[in-house]
Design goal:
Layout (H helix, E strand, L loop, with lengths): L19 E3 L2 E3 L12 H16 L6 H16 L3 H15 L5 H25 L19 H9 L5 H14 L5 H6 L6 H14 L4 H7 L5 H14 L5 H7 L5 H14 L1 H10 L6 H14 L2 H9 L6 H14 L4 H10 L3 H14 L5 H7 L5 H22 L6
Antiparallel strand pairs: 1-2
């Protein structure tokens, strides 16, 4: 139902045309229409043509059969049934060629009938009286009739109906909607999947169990959307499942799981620090560094500085980025690591991170590092000082206003 990488809600893969990213959410633009499966239209057309060929004969009463086809098209295609009506009208004129006035009127009737049927079926699906007989399914028995009807609408053939129902159920706060919404995370429509995940996030702690199960889905979109929703809920019960998701095969799932753990906050801090241990897989350490950088705090800073010794270069780069993201709060510990660290990788990483923070408080330590014996450290110190100089220059530069 895939970019602003700083946004927790993101349409993965090819972004929807016309999407508007507002704050933390990926909002479909007002004119967006969800689409039916591509085979529906051709299937109806093939059926019409097949019936026409089957019953074509001089004097055959094929026109009544065309009315039955239009009923089917109206039920299945709603407003797009008019195209079937136009095709039927064209076939009727062709079969009665050369057409007389009665044939032309009959052709117009087919088009009008298709429009009417499509409108009636579409209107009927939007009314509460259109509830189907699945209202008593497991999980819906305790909710009111309106919510039960909306749950039933999640099974509609129309993706817009499923989208609207998921949106409504997210606002009800009714736990009975959790199971049906979780199943919708694997909907064929990207927009519907996203709306279901957002709704589950709004339902809160009752949705945690279903969402943690979705972290095991074979559908990658279902996994990352579940991680985002768990971050919105921020229930500590999701920590073990999210830590396991740091080892997901997909990098976006891993990053969303890391950010969800950071959103949970202090209850996830110990798990993130433990995940940073060299005994874990590289991608787990990378995700833990990302989460700790978003979480911040003195414990996170100490753990990240220790991780500057990580044997994997990509993990070390993420650790430095995380320390830079923490900002000024990390500067005292980084300066101490730069001056007193025993491992050249730690001191070099501290210098790089200080350059990302661009704090004037680190200038003295960085200047001293220019005389160090290790060339990598000297290079990192020079780059950090350049970064601080550029940052300070840009802050002092005059700003133009309209």
């Amino acid at each position: 139902m895939q970019n602003s990488r700083r946004s927790r809600w993101r349409c993965r893969g090819d972004d929807w045309p016309g999407n508007t990213f507002i704050g933390w959410a990926c909002i479909p633009s007002p004119g967006m229409r969800l689409t039916e499966p591509a085979w529906v239209g051709p299937a109806v057309i093939a059926l019409v043509i097949g019936l026409a060929l089957l019953f074509f004969a001089p004097g055959a009463a094929y026109t009544d059969l065309f009315c039955l086809v239009l009923v089917l098209a109206g039920f299945r295609c709603r407003g797009r049934a008019v195209y079937a009506g136009i095709l039927v009208a064209a076939l009727h004129i062709g079969l009665a060629f050369p057409p007389d006035l009665a044939s032309l009127l009959r052709a117009g009737f087919f088009i009008a009938l298709a429009c009417l049927l499509g409108h009636l079926f579409d209107a009927a699906e939007q009314r509460p009286e259109a509830r189907d007989f699945r209202l008593g399914e497991s999980g819906a028995g305790a909710c009111d009739l309106t919510t039960r009807w909306q749950i039933a609408r999640l099974s509609s053939r129309n993706p817009e109906t499923r989208y609207q129902a998921a949106e409504y159920l997210g606002m009800t706060g009714d736990p009975a909607a959790v199971g049906p919404l979780a199943a919708l995370l694997e909907d064929p429509e990207n927009g519907v999947r996203w709306k279901a995940a957002e709704a589950l996030g709004r339902l809160g702690s009752p949705a945690v169990g279903a969402l943690t199960e979705s972290l095991q889905s074979e559908n990658v979109d279902a996994r990352w959307m579940a991680a985002v929703a768990l971050g919105d809920i921020a229930d500590p019960a999701a920590v073990p499942a999210l830590v396991a998701a740091l080892n997901d095969e997909d990098d976006y799932v891993r990053s969303r799981a890391a950010l969800a753990l950071a959103a949970i906050g202090k209850p996830a801090e110990g798990a993130l620090i433990a995940a940073l241990s060299p005994g874990n897989e590289r991608q787990v350490r990378w995700g833990a560094a990302l989460g700790l950088g978003r979480l911040g705090g003195s414990k996170a800073v100490r753990a990240l500085i220790g991780a500057l010794q990580d044997p994997d270069e990509e993990v070390r780069e993420q650790v430095m980025t995380a320390l830079g993201a923490i900002g000024e709060d990390a500067v005292p510990a980084l300066v101490a690591a730069l001056r007193t660290g025993d491992d050249p990788r730690v001191r070099t990483g501290a210098a790089t991170a200080l350059g990302l923070v661009a704090s004037p408080a680190s200038v003295e330590a960085l200047i001293a590092a220019l005389d160090d014996d290790h060339p990598d450290l000297r290079r990192a110190a020079r780059e950090a000082l350049r970064g601080i100089r550029r940052h300070n220059s840009s802050e002092r530069s005059p700003r133009s206003h309209d």
